Backbone:
């Protein structure tokens, strides 16, 4: 089985390898550079659109996966949300998302003004390239969970209809 991830971020690729490796044997997962065609940190429906845009369909693969993180507003609260879009080579499309993390309004305001969440995170902890490591998820949960965890959850949830075809015709 061949799986293409619409990203070269090793955290996203490793998460997809974990999920597909759990359900399937002989899986090859690799990443390609793609453009989400949404802002660096998208809001609301644009998170789903970005994931869909990253799941570039290519006949040489069995599954194509796009993963996008962004900010979703629910009940007047902003949450960091990770969304996965999975497309198979038959044209089927499914979405899944991981657990949301409440976001501080000060960070939301900075993102709304055009700053990238990864850059804000790097500044908060005085490190570089945190988005390819534990990300803001690790910082806000004080190490209990890392960026890969909600990605694994999002990919697994998007894969549910594909692994349960008898329930999801």
Residues:
């Amino acid at each position: 089985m061949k799986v293409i991830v619409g990203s070269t971020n090793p955290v996203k690729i490793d998460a997809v390898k974990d999920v597909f490796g759990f359900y399937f044997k002989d899986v090859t997962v690799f990443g390609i550079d793609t453009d989400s065609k949404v802002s660096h940190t998208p809001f609301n429906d644009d998170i789903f659109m970005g994931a869909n845009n990253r799941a570039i369909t290519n006949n040489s693969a069995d599954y194509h996966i796009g993963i996008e993180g962004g900010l979703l507003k629910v009940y007047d609260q902003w949450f960091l949300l990770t969304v996965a879009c999975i497309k198979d080579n038959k044209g089927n499309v499914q979405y899944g998302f991981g657990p949301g993390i409440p976001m501080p309004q000060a960070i939301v305001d900075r993102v709304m003004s055009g700053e990238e969440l990864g850059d804000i995170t790097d500044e908060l902890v005085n490190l570089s390239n945190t988005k390819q490591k534990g990300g803001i998820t690790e910082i806000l949960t004080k190490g209990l969970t890392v960026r890969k965890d909600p990605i694994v959850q999002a990919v697994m949830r998007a894969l549910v209809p594909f692994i349960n075809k008898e329930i999801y015709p």
Notes: The chain has six helices and six strands. The first helix runs from residue 10 to 23. The domain at 2-98+147-163 is CATH 3.90.950.10 (Maf protein). The CA atoms of residues 42 and 75 lie 18 Å apart.
